């Protein structure tokens, strides 16, 4: 499965970059395939392991913020692996066809 999520610390002032970096660090240290962009972090794996990473990232931010907002989007497709890169490659191939 793929999970794209965004964690926003609330009540800590305007600059939240350090707390967001802490959350991304948790994801990267998980060992699961992941990608971070300006809006979301996407993680690929089995349900329990991906959700455990999301929870750990939220818990890390919640340890330093009085409130945390979580936005989550999931793509559940049994039997599919490497979806994070394969889906993008498929679109890029279609674009190259012109």
Report on the structure:
There is one protein chain. The chain is an alpha+beta fold and 98 residues long. Helices cover 45% and strands 26% of the residues. The protein contains 3 helices and 4 strands, in the order βαββαβα. A hairpin with a 4-residue loop joins strand 2 and strand 3. Helix 1 runs antiparallel to helix 2. The model has no long low-confidence stretch (mean pLDDT 94).
N-to-C SSE series? Answer: EHEEHEH
**Uncertain regions: pLDDT < 50 for 5+ in a row?**
none
The largest sheet is: 4 strands, antiparallel
**What structural class results from the helix and strand content?**
alpha+beta
Q: Which shape, going by the Cα principal axes?
A: globular
Give me a quick take on this structure:
Belongs to the UPF0045 family. With about 100 residues, the protein is of the alpha+beta class.
Helix-strand blueprint:
Elements: E1 2-10, H1 17-29, E2 34-36, E3 41-44, H2 47-62, E4 67-75, H3 83-97
Antiparallel strand pairs: 1-3, 1-4, 2-3
Keywords:
four-stranded antiparallel beta sheet; 45% helix; globular
């Amino acid at each position: 499965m793929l999970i794209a999520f965004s964690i926003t610390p609330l009540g800590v002032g305007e600059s939240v970059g350090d707390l967001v970096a802490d959350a991304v660090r948790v994801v990267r240290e998980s060992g699961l395939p992941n990608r971070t962009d300006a809006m979301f972090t996407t993680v690929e794996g089995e349900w329990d392991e991906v959700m455990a990473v999301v929870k750990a990232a939220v818990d890390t931010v919640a340890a330093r913020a009085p409130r945390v907002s979580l936005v989550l989007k999931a793509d559940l497709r049994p039997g599919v692996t490497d979806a994070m890169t394969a889906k993008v490659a498929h679109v890029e191939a279609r674009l190259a066809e012109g």
